[in-house]
């Protein structure tokens, strides 16, 4: 145990103290704090200032209509009628003509886009009301003018007609309603997992391959069992990746405590629902298990080679499978969680860490498939570590050039 801890601590501390680790971690933490202040940064470059009062210069009839239309719209400015004088944080809406409606909007500063949209939407409604009045349309005719078409769906495999059947048919062609916060959690999980796998898989493969190519391993195995040495290396690299991940999580928690997220949440609609806790829980589980699985495989592949020139070729399966899993997850987020591709790939161990968080976003998935995915990863991790230990023990002192030569020799043994 002492030899395991010695190798573990030496590898872990050397990686944590490395400049590359510190710089990359600092950059990500800085990006987290920048993202937490995204709305404030935008305001720095946004020269527009919200108006507090919209003064309307018009006849009483138009003002009454405009005020009635603006009342149900949740605006952050007041409506007033005056003779054309405006203050510093005020705007003036002057009516130049009634048929057709022509207005001029004046202000001493740039008006924010959200306030402009409210004003334009209200003017459009007033224009429609004035058009209906000028054409002397009855209430029924006016309602027919704004009515939506009555569509009956007659689609093969679905019931036609009105009511719930037609509604379900209409919904069948629509995009699934996905909670924005769950979507953010999914994207963060998959992207972070992909980049950590690519980064640390290369590092652990290099560690193992460098020891073999420099013949340092001959001195190591004289005092430490090869399997113990490999397991310590794998554990240390997994701990380094989890340390970096923990730093990111702590930075996010600090940012939440220090900065006000209310405006960002309101702008992007980031509100939790019943599936959010399940989504976050399983995302963290699959993230950790995915890192352990891929790093174990990378260590196993690194033990195949005897030359550093073969390292990238040996690690190609890690890059390829992680990239395929990443793309399957990303490009199916707006599709169905029960599609054939998603269901099959979610049970393939190398794709499970990427695809299962996608299925966790949808309530119809249930707990059973998610727990099966966890069990698949646990079994795969055990097999990968045992296989890596066996291969490393049989190839640790091999001087054969080429991956396939080493593989043939290990099979013979």
Automatic annotation (TrEMBL):
Keyword GTP-binding: no
Positions of transmembrane segments: 21-38, 184-202, 236-259, 279-302, 314-334, 370-392
Topological category with respect to the lipid bilayer: Multi-pass membrane protein
Annotated InterPro entries: ABC2_TM
Domain named ABC-2 type transporter transmembrane: residues: 19-389
UniProt GO MF annotations: ABC-type transporter activity
Gene Ontology cellular component terms for the protein in this record: membrane
Pfam families noted in UniProt: ABC2_membrane_3 (PF12698)
Keyword annotations of the record: Membrane, Transmembrane, Transmembrane helix
Intracellular or extracellular location(s): Membrane
Protein's name according to its UniProt entry: ABC-2 type transporter transmembrane domain-containing protein
Species name: Salinicoccus roseus
């Amino acid at each position: 145990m002492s030899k395991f801890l010695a190798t573990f601590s030496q590898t872990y501390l050397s990686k944590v103290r490395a400049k590359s680790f510190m710089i990359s971690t600092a950059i990500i933490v800085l990006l987290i704090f920048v993202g937490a202040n995204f709305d404030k940064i935008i305001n720095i470059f946004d020269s527009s200032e919200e108006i507090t009062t919209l003064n309307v210069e018009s006849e009483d009839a138009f003002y009454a209509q405009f005020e009635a239309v603006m009342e149900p719209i949740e605006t952050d400015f007041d409506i007033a009628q005056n003779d054309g004088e405006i203050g510093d944080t005020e705007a003036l809406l002057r009516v130049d003509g009634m048929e057709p409606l022509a207005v001029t909007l004046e202000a001493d500063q740039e008006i924010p886009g959200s306030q402009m949209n409210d004003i334009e939407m209200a003017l459009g409604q007033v224009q429609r009301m004035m058009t209906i009045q000028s054409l002397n349309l009855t209430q029924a005719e006016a309602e027919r003018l704004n009515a939506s078409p009555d569509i009956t769906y007659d689609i093969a495999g679905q019931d036609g007609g009105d009511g719930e059947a037609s509604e379900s048919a209409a919904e069948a062609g629509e995009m699934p309603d996905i909670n924005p916060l769950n979507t953010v959690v999914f994207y963060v999980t998959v992207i972070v997992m992909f980049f950590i796998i690519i980064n640390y898989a290369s590092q652990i493969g290099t560690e193992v391959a460098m020891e073999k190519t420099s013949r340092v391993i001959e001195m190591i195995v004289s005092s430490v069992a090869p399997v113990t040495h490999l397991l310590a290396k794998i554990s240390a690299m997994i701990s380094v990746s989890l340390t970096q991940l923990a730093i990111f999580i702590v930075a996010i928690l600090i940012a939440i405590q220090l900065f006000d997220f209310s405006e960002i949440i309101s702008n992007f609609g980031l509100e939790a629902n019943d599936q959010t806790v399940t989504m976050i829980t399983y995302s963290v589980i699959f993230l950790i298990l995915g890192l352990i699985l891929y790093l174990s495989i990378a260590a196993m592949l690194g033990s195949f080679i005897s030359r550093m020139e073969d390292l990238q070729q040996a690690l190609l399966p890690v890059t390829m499978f992680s990239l395929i899993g990443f793309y399957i997850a990303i490009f199916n987020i707006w599709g169905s969680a029960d599609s054939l591709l998603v269901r099959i790939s979610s049970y393939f161990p190398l794709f499970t860490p990427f695809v299962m968080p996608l299925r966790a976003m949808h309530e119809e998935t249930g707990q059973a498939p998610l727990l099966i995915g966890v069990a698949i990863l646990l079994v795969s991790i055990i097999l990968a570590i045992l296989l890596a230990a066996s291969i490393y023990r049989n190839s640790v002192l091999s001087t054969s050039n080429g991956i396939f030569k080493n593989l043939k020799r290990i099979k013979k043994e």
